């Protein structure tokens, strides 16, 4: 009788564990887009201060130009322990002119996501490929040459 109870309890625990692994989770990441607020930003009439009041601070600004503001919203889904997959993404790109006024407003979706697959063994690079010994002994004689840092 005890062994039958133990078997049934083990089956229930096993089923609960397997059910937990099979759950899919949805998650929102980034900015929460409000369609009425994003369409309220007008080219030529709004500036940085009014955009910040309307939409808040951007998710990030441009690396090379601080006049590019990006608002990124992403919906992901993950199955058990696997990496999350993007199912929906919206990027609102607002570009300002030199005076701080809105110059353009663009909205894109997940079609622009780049899938980068690195090489398995080596990442190919441009330039000359060196052997092990060239890498090991290649700097001999280059130390303390005139014009290099550390030379007198």
Main sheet specs: 5 strands, antiparallel
Proportion of residues in helical segments: 25-40%
Please give the count of helices: 4
Low-pLDDT ranges: none
> What is the CATH topology of one domain?
Beta-lactamase Inhibitory Protein, Chain:B, domain 1
In angstroms, what is the radius of gyration?
28 Å
Order of helices and strands: HEHHEEEEH
How far is the N terminus from the C terminus? 90 Å
Gist of the model:
With 152 residues, the chain is α+β, with helices and mostly antiparallel strands.
Q: Which features does this protein show?
A:
five-stranded antiparallel β-sheet; 26% helix; BamE-like; Beta-lactamase Inhibitory Protein, Chain:B, domain 1; 26% strand; alpha+beta; 152 residues; 5 strands
What is the strand and helix layout of this fold?
Blueprint: H1 2-21, E1 24-30, H2 35-40, H3 48-55, E2 60-61, E3 68-79, E4 85-96, E5 102-108, H4 132-137
Antiparallel strand pairs: 1-3, 2-3, 3-4, 4-5
Account of the protein in words:
This protein has 152 residues and is α+β, with helices and mostly antiparallel strands. The chain has a domain at 24-117: Beta-lactamase Inhibitory Protein, Chain:B, domain 1, CATH 3.30.1450. Helices cover 26% and strands 26% of the residues. Strands 1, 2, 3, 4 and 5 form a five-stranded antiparallel sheet that branches. A hairpin with a 6-residue loop joins β2 and β3. The relative contact order is 0.13. The model has no long low-confidence stretch (mean pLDDT 82).
């Amino acid at each position: 009788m005890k062994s039958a109870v133990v078997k049934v309890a083990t089956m229930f625990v096993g089923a609960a564990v397997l059910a937990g692994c099979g759950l899919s989770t949805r998650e929102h990441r980034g900015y929460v887009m409000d369609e009425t607020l994003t369409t309220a930003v007008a080219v030529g009439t709004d500036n940085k201060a009014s955009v910040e009041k309307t939409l808040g601070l951007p998710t990030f600004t441009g690396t090379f130009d601080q006049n590019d503001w990006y608002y990124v919203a992403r919906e992901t889904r993950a199955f058990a322990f696997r990496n999350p997959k993007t199912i929906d993404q919206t990027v609102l790109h607002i570009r300002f002119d030199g005076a701080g006024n809105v110059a353009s407003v663009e909205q894109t979706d997940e079609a622009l996501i780049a899938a980068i697959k690195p090489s398995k063994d080596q990442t190919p690079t441009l330039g000359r490929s060196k052997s092990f010994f060239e890498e090991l002994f290649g700097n001999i004689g280059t130390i303390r040459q005139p014009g290099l840092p550390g030379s007198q």
